[in-house]
Design goal:
Elements: E1 6-11, H1 19-34, E2 37-41, H2 45-49, E3 53-55, E4 83-87, E5 90-94, H3 97-106, E6 111-116, H4 118-129, E7 134-138, H5 154-175, E8 178-183, H6 190-199, E9 203-205, H7 213-225, E10 231-236, E11 248-251, E12 259-261, H8 264-276, E13 280-284, H9 296-314, E14 320-325, E15 328-333, H10 349-356
Parallel strand pairs: 1-2, 1-6, 6-7, 7-14, 8-10, 8-13, 9-10
Antiparallel strand pairs: 2-3, 4-5, 11-12, 14-15
The chain binds 6-O-phosphono-beta-D-fructofuranose.
The site of 6-O-phosphono-beta-D-fructofuranose has 12 residues, from β12.
């Protein structure tokens, strides 16, 4: 048995459906099962830097299972090892880990439950190196965390994206248009792949499979020849043309993940229209994929993960990430998930199944000469 009496819990990175389900499960399992105290850290690691840490009661975590967002608040702007302060109007990096360690000691926290994605796990890795026991819980709508088959939040994001694709389907058919839905996912195409397959999208574009714009145009034209006067395209925000670059909305060097993707859907819409004459529209789904009520699968997964985090702690485990492998909840070294991204293998069974039912991934016909990409952007690779 571990000598643990009080734990801290924080949510880091982008908000994600199911965060409150995890906070609830962590707090109730700890209180009811092990008589532990749970303290909530506000706004991710920022709360550790600024000493915003407060006890959580059963009342605090009642009635939050179905609630979107996070009752603790979150931030994707703070890694204490590389904390930005303004010096003479210029942002400069400082390591404020020691300040956080003091606040952890002052609050008598024996361990931290850190709920987040790869950036948050890299923040946790810093505390692990300073001797703080951190148990990670994998969160992200992108489903791109190493070590786990699935993250909570992904199922809800896919459900939202699928519904959007279903809705544009009838509009596209009525107007004889090509319709693009751009979905989130950063450099991983999991949301696009799953929502695209679930909605029967005709074209799915993933960051992992660079597309050939002429192949897509030919596909749209070919469909019209066979009486299908509309085309549905599900495009990942990280999709890029063969030999080309991703479309970047913004680069903010003061955040741990400085590259904000977005806009490729509109670029492709214009190109399809030019090349085929088919009227094309694009809907960028954005943060509606992240907000709102979690679907049942994410409530269940969040509850399982939160409970497993407490069980791992009480079994004396240190520095583990709770994961789902197959149908089993287990744990792996937390460092495995820090700053790495699990992308879609190009021969993933779901990619093969989609191809088998006639879905295009925008790749050129075999042996065809491909043209140079005409998407220009100031893309830079994601550090880490
Ligand atoms: O990682 C989750 C995610 O929603 C990505 O899919 C997206 O690229 C990014 O966060 C958007 O970040 P922000 O909320 O800072 O706009």
């Amino acid at each position: 048995m571990a000598d643990i009496r009080r734990i801290g819990v924080l949510t880091g990175g982008g908000d994600c459906p199911g965060l409150n389900a995890v906070i609830r499960a962590v707090t109730k399992s700890a209180m009811f099962g092990h008589d532990l105290e749970v303290w909530g850290i506000e706004d991710a690691f920022l709360g550790l830097v600024q000493n915003r840490i407060r006890p959580l009661t059963n009342t605090d975590v009642s009635n939050i299972l179905t609630l979107g967002g996070t009752i603790l608040g979150t931030s994707n702007r703070c890694n204490p090892a590389e904390y930005f302060v303004e010096v003479n109007g210029e942002p400069q990096k400082r390591d404020v880990t020691d300040r956080c360690l003091e606040h952890i000691a002052h609050a008598n926290l024996d361990a931290l439950v850190v709920i987040g994605g790869d950036g948050t796990m890299s923040g946790a890795a810093n505390f692990v190196r300073h001797g703080i026991n951190c148990i990670g819980v994998p969160k992200t709508i992108d489903n791109d965390l190493e070590g786990t088959d699935v993250t909570f939040g992904f199922a809800t994001a896919c459900a939202v994206a699928t519904e959007a694709l279903d809705r544009v389907h009838t509009s596209a058919a009525s107007h004889h248009r090509a319709m693009i839905v751009e979905v989130m996912g950063r450099n991983a195409g999991w949301i696009a792949l799953h929502a695209g397959v679930a909605s029967g999208a005709d074209v799915i574009l993933l960051p992992e499979i660079p597309y050939d714009i002429q192949a897509i145009a030919d596909f749209v034209t070919e469909r019209s020849r066979h009486g299908k006067r509309f085309t549905i395209l599900c495009v990942s925000e990280g999709a890029k043309p063969l030999g080309g670059r991703q479309v970047v909305q913004e680069i903010d060097p003061t955040v741990p993940d400085p590259v904000r993707l977005g806009g490729v859907g509109n670029v492709i819409a214009e190109q399809i229209e030019q090349r085929t004459g088919v009227e094309t529209r694009c809907t960028v789904l954005g943060h509606v994929q992240r907000g709102g009520t979690p679907c049942p699968a994410d409530r269940i997964l969040g509850t399982q993960f939160g409970h497993a985090a407490i069980e791992a702690l009480m079994a004396g485990k240190r520095d583990r990430l709770i994961v789902m492998q197959g149908l089993t909840v287990t744990d792996v070294d937390i460092l495995r998930a820090a700053d790495t991204q699990r992308t879609v293998p190009v021969d993933h069974p779901l990619v093969r199944a989609a191809r088998a039912v006639g879905t295009s991934f925008g790749d050129p016909p075999p042996h065809a000469a491909t043209e140079t990409a005409d998407v220009e952007s100031d893309y830079r690779t994601v550090p880490g």
